[in-house]
Design a protein that fits this description.
It contains seven helices and seven strands. The chain is of the alpha+beta class. The chain is globular and about 55 Å long. 31% of the residues are buried.
C-alpha cells in the first residue's frame, strides 16, 4: 500500500483520445520511459491507474519546488551551490543515457527539488528512446525549449540525443551561476543565430574552471562537446582531471 504522505497523485485527462491515437501513444511512451529510469536524481513513477477516459499517475512527492523558482527568487547561486545541483543533474542525465533515454527538454523548470534539496529531473514528455534513432543513428525531431536547445537540433540534419542534452546542461549551469540566460533575444531568428554561433559572454564573477567547463559544453560542434562525469577530488568545475565524453 502507498503512503500518500510520500507520494502524490497526478491526473492526466486524455481529452477524448482513443486507444492508439497519437496523444494516447505519447503518454504511454512517457510512462514506459519513466519506468526505465529509476535513479535518485530522477522523479520516480510509482503506479499507473486508468479508466476509459483518464489515466492516473502516482509520482514521487517532491515539495521543494522548481530549481527555476529558486533562481527567480534568490538570484544567481554561488559556485559551490551551483556545482552541487549540476553534479546531481549530470548524474541523472548520464543514467538516462545509459538506459538509451534522451530527455530533450532539460531546463530549470523541469528540475525539481525535494524537501532535502535533492534535485529530481522531471517531465519526460519530449524524451526519446534509442529505438527511435533513424538509419543514420541520429534523432531528427526538432523539439525542446528555444533558449536551451542545441545548435544541431536547429540545423534539421539530425542530432545525437546525448550531446544535445549535454548542451542543455551547459546552459543550465550558466543560468545557475549567472542568474540569466547565455542565449536570449525577443526575436526568435536572432536567438537561433546566437545559439548556432555559440555567441555568449561570461560575467566577471565566473571562475576560470567554470568558464572552461561551460565552453566545452556550449560548443557548436557536437562532436567536440565534452564533460567530466566521474568524481573529482575537490571540485568538478575546478578539477585538473581530463574531461571525458558524456555518452550512453
Amino acid at each position: 500500500m502507498f503512503n500518500f504522505l510520500d507520494f502524490a497523485c497526478s491526473k492526466i485527462t486524455f481529452c477524448g483520445a482513443t486507444k492508439g491515437s497519437s496523444t494516447s501513444l505519447l503518454i504511454k511512451r512517457e510512462i514506459s520511459i519513466m519506468k526505465l529510469v529509476k535513479h535518485p536524481n530522477i522523479i520516480q513513477i510509482c503506479e499507473v491507474m486508468g479508466s476509459k477516459k483518464k489515466i492516473y499517475i502516482v509520482l514521487e512527492l517532491v515539495t521543494g519546488g522548481e530549481l527555476f523558482d529558486k533562481i527567480a527568487t534568490q538570484g544567481r547561486l554561488k559556485e559551490e551551490e551551483a556545482r552541487k545541483y549540476f553534479q546531481q543533474l549530470i548524474n541523472g542525465v548520464d543514467f538516462c543515457h545509459s538506459r538509451g533515454v534522451y530527455h530533450r527538454d532539460l531546463k530549470p523548470e523541469n528540475l525539481l527539488l525535494d524537501a532535502n534539496g535533492i534535485l529530481k529531473i522531471s517531465d519526460f514528455g519530449m524524451s526519446a528512446l534509442s529505438q527511435q534513432l533513424k538509419a543514420d543513428g541520429l534523432l531528427h525531431t526538432t523539439c525542446g525549449t528555444p533558449n536551451y536547445v542545441a545548435p544541431e537540433v536547429l540545423n534539421n540534419k539530425g542530432y545525437d540525443g546525448a550531446t544535445a542534452d549535454t548542451w542543455s546542461c551547459g546552459v543550465i549551469l550558466f543560468v545557475l551561476m549567472a542568474g540569466y540566460l547565455p542565449f536570449d533575444d525577443p526575436n526568435l531568428m536572432t536567438l537561433y543565430k546566437k545559439i548556432l554561433q555559440a555567441d555568449f559572454t561570461f560575467p566577471p564573477w565566473f571562475s576560470s574552471g567554470a568558464k572552461k567547463l561551460i565552453k566545452r559544453m556550449l560548443d557548436p560542434n557536437p562532436k567536440s562537446i565534452t564533460i567530466c562525469v566521474g568524481p573529482a577530488p575537490n571540485s568538478l568545475l575546478l578539477s585538473p582531471q581530463p574531461y571525458s565524453s558524456l555518452r550512453s
